[in-house]
Amino acid sequence: MPVEFLTDEEAAAYGTYQGVPSRAEMEKLFFLDAADKRLVARRRGDHSRLGFAMQLTTVRYLGLFLSDPLAVPGEVVDYLAEQLGIADPTCVDRYTERRTTRFEHADEIKAEFRLRDFEEREKQLRDWVDARSWTTGDGPKVIFVDAVRWLREHDVLLPGVTTLARLVAQVRDEANQRLWETLFGLLTSEQRALLDSLTQVPEGERVSQLEKWRKGPTKASGRTMEKALERVAQIRDTGFGRLALDEAVPTRRLVDLARYGMSAKSQQLARHPQTRRLATLLSTVVYLEGNATDDALELLDLLMTADLLGKAERESEKERARRQPRLARASAKLAVAVEVLLDATEWGDEVTLEQYGRASRR
Known about the structure:
- By secondary structure, this protein is mainly α.
- It folds into three domains: about 110 residues, no CATH class; about 70 residues, no CATH class; about 120 residues, no CATH class.
- It contains 17 helices and no strands.
- Helix 4 packs across helix 6 and helix 7 runs parallel beside helix 9.
- The radius of gyration is 39 Å and the shape is flat.
């Protein structure tokens, strides 16, 4: 099984140095504390001590031992050499002259830090990937990345990229197949035939029944309301909504299947193997029952609101039109009165009503 969900660049970057580690990474993962230096000091010769330190910090950083222990950025080599007081970092080139040295050192590092080989924890990882795939339906790349994190957190040495990718793809496929078979097993032969008929275009029709159900109301009208109720009744009459699907499989997986079933073309669904096809259609119809009911209720609310509010607005407009002439006359009188009051400030301290009256009639 090829590593098809990883790009060539992603596969090549797995378990290798991608440039120089950041300063924070250097200070955290490549710093040699007192315990590290005591372990390194057991080696004889600068090249052996520096090579050991390189393997120690590399497995800490990458989660595995490199097939070429010298494939480390020069900045890392210099940083380690400086901490060990080694004046000439190039002496490490002699580290691989004795073939078994790097393997002996790797075994010692594994024992010291209790690192486990992948084979020791493969079953636990498979169980973890299976549970993750069953409950979430996440894509293989997401699960692959998190599987690497799981191995690192459990102090397990990373396997080769192909080994891990094959495990993730295989276990995820098995979980998906189990999901489809579980839903398929809830159906009677009559229900399976009914679901299959939903993707077929009846004679004299242009679209399948599934396509009709997936299309909700497009405008608010009495006729549309009637069709919306018919849609709800047709879907409910299938009886699929009464199946306890969420007791058999995780709700999130049902949602994922329904989302795919709502967007895929009928011809595309028909090409899938039977278990996947019917599991997808079942989840989609159950989703459609709730969706169709919501659409009908929203449409009813819209019609009632539009009718009641529309009538109230029309009555308000009529009342405003009736009151407009009276309002205009009252406004004119008010304007004259205000003008008179403003002019009255020039008449002195005592102003009579007769003066106001004459001024208003002018």
